[in-house]
Amino acid sequence: MAKKSLSSPNKIDELPYEKSLSELESIVSALESETHTLEESLTLYERGQLLAKHCAALLDQAELKVKQLSDDKLNTFIDED
To answer: What is the CATH number of domain 16-69?
Structure first.
């Protein structure tokens, strides 16, 4: 069975970005180690996919908020002379 720390029962939609990304990185490492059964690997892969989608959604939300706070324009950090 998959390690508890890699497939925690926490609902993904309740995880903050940092914890989601950290768990996703752990899953990638675990899958690369090739020490899991096929069933465990599939379970890890499925959770990894859900975490990746969750991270992408959180980043999209953050980008939208930044756009709203900057009047729908992302400010460049390069000085224009």
So the answer is: 1.10.287
